Prior knowledge:
The chain is α/β, with parallel strands linked by helices. 36% of the residues lie in helices and 9% in strands. The protein has a four-stranded mixed beta sheet with strand order 1-2-3-4. The radius of gyration is 14 Å and the shape is globular. The model has no long low-confidence stretch (mean pLDDT 93).
Amino acid sequence: MNVSSGLGSISTAAEPGSPWAAFAMVYSSAKAALNMLTVKYAAAFPDMRVNAVDPGFTATDLNQHRGSQTVAEGARVIVQYATIGPAGPSGGFFSSTGPVPW
């Protein structure tokens, strides 16, 4: 399970007028690369569940605690996908509300 970010979504950044298009370029690029690794690991290890998860805008040192949710709230989706069973999805990108576009 990889902790990604919606900022790593190429689809979202490419939407016309997206406010995220030129925001946090290095961070976003690193998360997009992590998303690709998620797909590659899922393909390489089909018996494992490998997913990328966006915990949402969580109040941490990274954003000077400006996030809209607590660390415990952000961790819920991480724990959910880290403990997913063998019948769960693999090779996907998810948030607490469901699939995130690549």
